[in-house]
């Protein structure tokens, strides 16, 4: 066979995704090196997508298919990865398992772990050695990336294949150059929507959780970052994909700054909590400011007095969070009326990346945003305000994440985070309590 079939190991692909001709596929099927399964099945009289395990009737549709010349059902839930139709098959490796070469001294990093990071790192190494499961609950700014370096190095020493999955494309893009630098001798594939990378059986795969749907029994070590983040936390198919991507005997490590109580209870003794940031300082605790009916004021292009005063006294960069795009635009108008220079961004903003870059460079002093920036942005000496903190979009996890934007720089470990509200919510109270409890815990 001319083509390198190692590409197929651990994959779960449609026919059109296979770099093989019909004769080669037939040979592999005959020799039982690969198997195939119907892409859409009926399980207990319910249509089921074999790739994403969707069983919701409203997420299936049908059309006339030019391939089978019949009406075909297809899954709308995983459509972004390519259409899965009822006349399709999904192919997976069924041949001998490849033994990977054990590689020593792969980590090119001379940094020093904090005490908390070292505790987490040790737990991760032991989890990988024993093919166990573990949850790392580390506060925002604890330095989770550095915590996993030695565990990944241990995996390569033992000839293991590693997956690091995260819900957000931005995180994959940020992590790729960093991991290529610290593991220069390791073949790394970075997979996300629109990426040019194609995994040719790389030892280390960085991927969005959606891309993990293309794998089956592929990895010895699976690390999932931001398990509390959208869409992973809200989409059962992504959790299903992670489970399927693991080998039968594999280590599973979950990372989160704000894990659900259900997950904390589920992991019990397989949990390590890191209550301190890498620089050792306590987390800034949010303050709460009642501002009355702020929506009414904003619709009149007026800023609540307390918010206006807060914006005026802060001379450092300011992140101002609002609950919806509608109020983002209204707040922007009110800021303009008060001659406060700023930029405003949300998930669909065409200028989002440019505006964030300007903010990072100090070219913009106030950035108004929705929850799209609750994660993944680190600005030195930033002050953060939330207008409408009582809105349901600001749940406990979101409030803790937003509060975690403040005080990350060791030169500016103390910062101001303020909830401007029209009535306290349980989420607001719980988020403050969680931060206070973390500050009281010992490593």
UniProtKB/TrEMBL annotation:
SMART domains: DEXDc (SM00487), HELICc (SM00490). One of its GO terms (biological process) is double-strand break repair. Residues 125-277 form the Helicase ATP-binding domain. Pfam families: Helicase_C, ResIII. PROSITE patterns: HELICASE_ATP_BIND_1, HELICASE_CTER. It comes from the Bacteria. Gene3D superfamilies: P-loop containing nucleotide triphosphate hydrolases. The keyword Kinase does not apply. InterPro entries: Helicase/UvrB_N, Helicase_ATP-bd, Helicase_C-like, P-loop_NTPase. GO terms for molecular function: 3'-5' DNA helicase activity; ATP binding; DNA binding; hydrolase activity. The keyword Transcription regulation does not apply. Residues 306-443 form the Helicase C-terminal domain. Keywords: ATP-binding, DNA-binding, Nucleotide-binding. This is Competence protein ComF.
């Amino acid at each position: 066979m001319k083509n390198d079939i190692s590409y197929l190991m651990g994959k779960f692909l449609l026919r059109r995704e296979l770099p093989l001709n019909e004769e080669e596929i037939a040979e592999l099927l005959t020799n039982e090196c690969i198997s195939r399964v119907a892409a859409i099945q009926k399980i207990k009289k319910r249509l089921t997508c074999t790739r994403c395990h969707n069983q919701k009737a409203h997420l299936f549709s049908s059309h006339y298919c030019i391939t089978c010349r019949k009406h075909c059902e297809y899954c709308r839930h995983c459509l972004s990865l390519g259409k899965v139709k009822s006349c399709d098959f999904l192919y997976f490796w069924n041949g001998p398992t490849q033994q990977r070469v054990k590689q020593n001294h792969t980590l090119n990093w001379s940094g020093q772990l904090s005490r908390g990071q070292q505790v987490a790192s040790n737990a991760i190494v032991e989890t990988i050695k024993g093919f166990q499961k573990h949850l790392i609950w580390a506060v925002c700014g604890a330095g989770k990336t550095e915590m996993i370096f030695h565990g990944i190095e241990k995996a390569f020493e033992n000839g293991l294949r590693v997956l690091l999955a995260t819900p957000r494309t931005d995180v994959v893009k940020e992590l790729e150059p960093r991991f290529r630098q610290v593991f220069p001798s390791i073949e790394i594939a970075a997979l996300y929507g629109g990426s040019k990378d194609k995994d040719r059986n790389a030892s280390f795969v960085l991927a969005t959780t959606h891309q993990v749907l293309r794998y089956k029994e592929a990895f010895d070590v699976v690390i999932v970052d931001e398990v509390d983040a959208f869409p992973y936390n809200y989409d059962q198919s992504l959790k299903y994909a992670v489970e399927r991507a693991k080998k039968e005997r594999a280590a599973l490590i979950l990372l989160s700054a704000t894990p659900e109580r259900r997950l904390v209870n589920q992991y019990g003794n397989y949990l390590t909590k890191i209550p301190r940031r890498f620089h050792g300082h306590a987390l800034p605790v949010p303050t709460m400011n009642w501002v009355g009916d702020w929506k009414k004021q904003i619709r009149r292009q007026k800023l609540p007095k307390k918010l206006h005063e807060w914006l005026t006294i802060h001379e450092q960069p300011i992140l101002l969070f609002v609950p919806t795009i509608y109020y983002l635009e209204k707040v922007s108008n009110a800021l303009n009326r008060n001659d406060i220079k700023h930029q405003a961004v949300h998930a669909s903003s065409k200028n989002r990346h440019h505006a964030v870059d300007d903010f990072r460079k100090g070219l913009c002093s106030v950035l108004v945003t929705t929850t799209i920036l609750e994660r993944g942005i680190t600005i030195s000496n930033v002050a953060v305000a939330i207008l409408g903190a009582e809105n349901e979009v600001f749940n406990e996890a979101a409030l803790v994440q937003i509060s975690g934007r403040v005080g990350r720089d060791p030169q500016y470990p103390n910062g101001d985070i303020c909830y401007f509200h029209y009535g306290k919510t349980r989420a607001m109270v719980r988020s403050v309590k969680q931060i206070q409890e973390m500050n009281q815990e010992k490593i």
